Amino acid sequence: MTPRKDSEFKKLIRKITLLNAVRHKGKAQTGAVIGKLLSERPELRAKAKEIPALVSEVVQEVNNLSLEEQKRIVEKKWPEALVKEKAEEEKVLPPLPNVDKYAQIVTRFSPNPDCVLHLGSARAIVLCHEYVRMYKGKFVLRFEDTDPKLKRPVLEFYDAIREDLAWLGCRPDEEHIQSDRIPTYYEYAERVLKDGNAYVCACQPELFREKALASEPCECRDLPPQEHLKRWHRMLEGSYREGEAVVRIKTDLSHPNPAVRDWPALRIIDSEKYPHPRVGSRYRVWPLYNFACGVDDHLMGVTHIIRGKEHLTNMVRQEFMYKHLGWQYPEAIHYGRLKIKGASLSKSKIIQGIREGLYKDWDDPRLATFAALRRRGITPGAIKKLIIDVGPKTSDVVLSWENLYAYNRKILDSKADRYFFVHNPVQLMVKNVPKTFTPKLRLHPDQPEGGFRKYTITPREDNNSAVLWISRTDASALKIQKVIRLMELFNIKIERVNAYSAEASFISEAYEEARKAGAPLIHWIPLGADMPCQVVMPDATIAEGIAENACKGLKPNEIIQFERFGFTRVDEVNMRLKTYYAHR
Ligand SMILES: [Zn+2]
Q1: For 464-492, what is the mean pLDDT?
Q2: How far apart are CA 410 and CA 45, in angstroms?
Q3: Cα(343)–Cα(383) distance, rounded to whole angstroms?
Q4: Which is it for the CA torsion 307, 313, 314, 315, positive or negative?
Q5: Where do the H-state alpha helices sit in 244-398?
C-alpha cells in the first residue's frame, strides 16, 4: 500500500466511523464499521486481517469525542452523507403544492359506508392524515352516503370505518355525514338553477345522451331559470317519479370528454322503496357524487384533495360548478393506481363474496380489509410505512403481500415473544437421556431480560428415555444416523423413523457440537407440556397442532412468533389456543 492510498483508506474508515457514531448516540460500533467498509470497498476483503485493528483504533479515537463534536465534524465534512442517511432512515413525503396560500391545510377522507375499509383505502387515509400531521392542519372524515339505492350505506359500517381509522392511528379532527346535509345541497342547487348555471332536465336519458354526444343542448337547457325553479320544486314535492327529472350543471357542451358535458347533480330516488338507513324516506331528491363532494370540499375548507387519478374527470366536472359559484377549486393531487398482487381490492367483489357466503365475515383472512389484516397481526405501522414509502406519485405501483410483510416483520421482530408450535405433532422418543434437563428458553432471543419459558425433561427411570413432540414435517425429513439438535436442549442421533413416530439416542448437550456436525435445529414440546392449538392461515385453512404450555398465559391480540413457523396473532386462549397467521 502506498502512503497516499493508506491515508485515503484511513480517511474512509474515519468517515464511516463518525457517521456510525452520530447514528448511535456517539458510540460507533467496530463490527458495523467493518461491515460498512467492506460493503463499500469489497476489494479490501483481501486485507481482512489488518482491518479490525485499524478500525478499532479509529473507533476508539472517535468514541472519545463528544456527540456534539462528532456531529460538527460530519456536518462540516460530509453534510450530504448526513442528509442521505436521514432520508433513508425515515422517508418523508414530498411537500404539498401552494401551502403558503392557506392559513390551515385541510384534507379529507370521504368513504361511502357501504362496505368496510380495505387496503385500497389506506393510501388516501394515510397520505391525507400524514400531510395534516406535517403541516399541523385538519383532517376531515366525511361519510358520502347519498345513494340509498345502488350504493346503499349500512349502519354498522359508519362505526366500523371510525374504528378502522382509529386503529390506523389516523383519527379525524372533524366528521361530517352527507345524509345530514341534504338541505345544504338543496340550497346550492337552487342557487345554480336561479343563476341559470344549471337546469332541470326532464328528457328521456337516451335522448339526452344522444344530444350530448352531438354537443347539442336538449330542449330543457335553454328554458328560463323560473321554469327550472318550478320544475325543481316539483321534483321536491314528488310530482316527478324516479328517473323523470334530473338537475344538470351546465358545462361546455363541446367539451372533448362527452362524460363531462352537462353532468347530473341531483336526482330522484324512490325512498319509500329504498329508504336510507339513517334518514329513512325523508328525502326524495338526492345529490350525486360530484355535486355533494364539490359543495362539501368548498364549505369544509378543504385545501388539498388527495385522491386516485381515476378522479381526474370528476375534477374537470366540478371545476365548472366552482366557476358558476365563484369558488376557487382546491389544490388536487391525483396519485397513480396501487395494486397489491394477490389481494382483491374490489369492494364489489368483497360484498358479493360475503353475500354468497364465500367469505365468513368482513375479517375473513383471505380479504385485504383492515379488519382481516388486524386479525392476522398486520400492524397499522407497517401499512403506514408502506404507503408513505410509495408516496403520492402519479405512476402506477404494483406491490406484493411480501412488501407489506417485510415492513410488518421489521416492526414485530424485536417485539414478538417466541414460542413453539408443533404442527401435525408426532412423537419422538429419545433414549439414553443421562439426566434431567431443565432448559430455559428465552421469550425473545435478543432480550434476556424479557424472561424465559422453562421445561423439565426427566428420563424414565426404567429405560432413560424421554418423549417429545416434533412436527410431522420435521420427522419426515429425518434420516437414520443423522445428528439433529433439539433447539436449546440437546443433540440426538436418529435411529428409526416412520410417518407417526421417531426414535433417537441422546449424544451430547453442547450447541457447539451440533454446529460442528452441521446439525439442523428443530423445535419440540415435551409430552404433557402442550395445549391444542389451531392456526388460521391466510387462505382460511386451519393448521392443527399443539403449542407449548407457556402459551396458556397469552392474551388475545398479542402477536407472537411461533419459531420456524411464523408470526401469528393470538385470537382466543382457553382450553385451546387459536391464532391467526400473519406471515413468516
Ligand atoms: Zn332535457
Answers
A1: 95
A2: 29
A3: 14
A4: positive
A5: 289-299, 312-325, 347-355, 370-376, 380-390
DSSP annotation string for 132-176? HHHHT-EEEEEE----TTTS---HHHHHHHHHHHHHHT---SEEE
Distance of CA 44 to the CA centre of its chain: 41
Confirm if 132 and 301 have CB atoms less than 8 A apart: no
Q: Is 568 in contact with 543 (CB distance < 8 Å)?
A: no
Cell numbers given for 157:
359500517
| Centre of ligand 1 from the C-alpha of residue 220, in Å | 4
> Can you tell me the distance from the alpha carbon of 483 to that of 476, in angstroms, rounded to the nearest whole number?
14
- Strand-pairing partners, residue 388, are none
Distances, alpha carbon 279 to alpha carbons 148, 175, 176, 183, 286, in Å: 10, 17, 15, 13, 12
Cα distance between residue 417 and residue 377, in whole Å: 13
Q: 527-563: per-residue pLDDT in tens?
A: 999 999 999 999 999 999 999 999 999 999 999 999 9
Q: For residue 182, what is its C-alpha cell?
A: 341534504
Percentage of the chain beyond pLDDT 70 is: 98
Distance CA 19, CA 36 (A): 11
247 Cα: distance to centroid of ligand 1 (angstroms): 9
Residue type for position 361: D
Nearest to residue 303, comparing CAs of 60, 540, 495, 128? Answer: 128
Query: Which amino acid type is present at position 121?
Result: S
Q: How far is CA 344 from CA 257, 347, 355, 392, in A?
A: 30, 8, 16, 21
Cell digits for 206? Answer: 337516451
pTM, rounded to two decimals: 0.83
Cα 180 to averaged position of ligand 1 atoms, centre (Å): 29
465/487 Cα distance (integer angstroms): 18
CA gyration radius for the chain? 33
Instruction: Please report where in the chains the cell 379488519 appears, as a residue.
Output: 371
3-state secondary structure of 395: coil
Report how far residue 261's alpha carbon sits from residue 263's, in angstroms, rounded to the nearest whole number: 6
Query: 327 C-alpha to center of ligand 1: Å?
Result: 26
What is the 489 CA–ligand 1 centroid distance (Å)?
Answer: 83
> What does the pLDDT look like over 268-304, one tens digit per residue?
999 999 999 999 999 999 999 999 999 999 999 999 9
Task: Tell me what the mean pLDDT of segment 422-431 comes to.
Answer: 97
The three grid cell numbers given for residue 165, joined into one nine-digit string:
381509522
Distance 361 CA to ligand 1 centre (A): 45
Query: In this structure, which residues have their CB less than 5 angstroms from ion ligand 1?
Result: 201, 203, 218, 220
Sheet architecture: strand order including 106-109: 106-109, 138-143, 174-177
| pLDDT value at 72 more than 70 | yes
Extract the C-alpha cell encoding 195: 343563476
- Name 419's bridge partners: 562
In angstroms, what is the span from residue 293 Cα to ligand 1's centroid?
24
Distance 218 CA to ligand 1 centre (A): 5
Residues facing residue 141 across a β-bridge? 109, 175
Q: CA 312, CA 323: separation in Å to the nearest integer? A: 17
Distance of CA 579 to the CA centre of its chain: 20
The vertex-548 CA angle with 545 and 550, nearest 5°, equals 145
